[in-house]
Amino acid sequence: MAETIAFRMNLFPGMAGEYKRRHDAIWPELAALLKEAGVADYSIWLDEETNHLFGVLKRSDDHGMDRLPMEPIVRRWWDMMADIMETEPDNTPVQVPLAKMFHLP
């Protein structure tokens, strides 16, 4: 059974167009790696008033998401994104887990 998780990230003001442009051209190798790690049905939504990005994805029970931060292609993607969004000192995106409050299946 798949688990759905959600999280929030912070986009710098004025960077929505660039963020979308970069994701519209996501590297095929990165997309494949996410799928190999058990990630499916992944979407990111923008609250234009706050510049908050909301990520929602499904992951398999045997997912390998915990290994993704060690993958060179993931590190390169994060390095490329660091100029348009809030990151930790190592360029990992700042992510705040979101608690599920309601679900209508």
UniProtKB/TrEMBL annotation:
GO terms for biological process: rhamnose catabolic process. Pathway: Carbohydrate metabolism; L-rhamnose metabolism. Pfam families: rhaM (PF05336). InterPro entries: Dimeric_a/b-barrel (IPR011008), L-rhamnose_mutarotase (IPR013448), Rham/fucose_mutarotase (IPR008000). Involved in the anomeric conversion of L-rhamnose. The active site is at H23 (proton donor). Substrate binds at Y19, Y42, W77, W78. It catalyses: alpha-L-rhamnose = beta-L-rhamnose. Its EC number is 5.1.3.32. The gene is rhaM. GO terms for molecular function: L-rhamnose mutarotase activity. It comes from the Bacteria. The lineage of its organism: Bacteria, Pseudomonadati, Pseudomonadota, Alphaproteobacteria, Hyphomicrobiales. This is L-rhamnose mutarotase. Signal peptide: none annotated. The keyword Cytoplasm applies. Homodimer. HAMAP family: L_rham_rotase. It is found in: Cytoplasm. GO terms for cellular component: cytoplasm.
